[in-house]
Amino acid sequence: MRKALRAFIIMGYLCCAGFQGRAQQNTPHTLSQLQDSLSRISEDITNATENTARFEQNARFIKTLVQALRLPGSFDFPFDSLRMISAVKSPDGAFKLYTWFVPTNEGGFRYFGTIQMPSKNILQLFPLIDHTENLPDSNAVAEPKTWFGSRYYEIVPVQNGKETYYALLGWKGNSPKTTSKVIEILSFKNGTPVFGKPVFEQAGKLSARNRLIFTYNKMNSMTLRFDKKVNMIVLDHLAPYDPAMEGNFEYYASDSSFDGYAISKGRLKLLENIELNNDPDDQDALYIDPSRKDIPAKKKF
Asked: Rounded to the nearest 5°, which phi and psi values hold at 106?
């Protein structure tokens, strides 16, 4: 475990080393070549059987990723051949978000990520340090160095007066028995990222929740996506298999009904038991556990 911790510290250093740096103009590498290298390192992480080996390979992954992001054009490069990493650009082009995870032998996950800001000559990154295990409160507002780690797959901009904040939709594996989906709120204060914001409205009142976490049985799936047609984040309603299991999330799954968070006047307003006219996104099934090879077929409604 000491070696794993040491590797984690090195990885944080490597990420921070890429916070600002002039884009490399003369280099023998291209983005496609570095993407191929990242893909090979990803396989090494997947094939490793011990935590120490995984984190050592992940340190290589971070170093190679920073090298790629220093190249001109990296902000617009999709990195779409990498299964391990989720690279998502905000629809308004304000930033690009890279997030991924490394599974552990204990059945948990450690999350990694960085936010890339658009720039032609200077690379500006905000490294994200997973602080999940050390957060006294999962509802706490967080900074990049105290991040509630997740693997984000969709970014939803929300206009609130002159301010824009972003609803990040993500997957968060927890343990051998449960997994979660997350609606994280990202805003920028004086140019610095802030995670968590009380923007959720229920029954006409502003909730105290800064982010929403939906936890359920790991063998099930949960829809969580943005529907542009109705300007709403739609999601499965979760419930225990048996009312006696209330609060025990190992026994939670979709009850085949849907809720939604409508974007209204700068808030996310909860609407319960909504009707959907289209099928859930095919990508939803991929976020049961992206590391699994036995992903079941998407459920039908």
From this structure: -80, 0
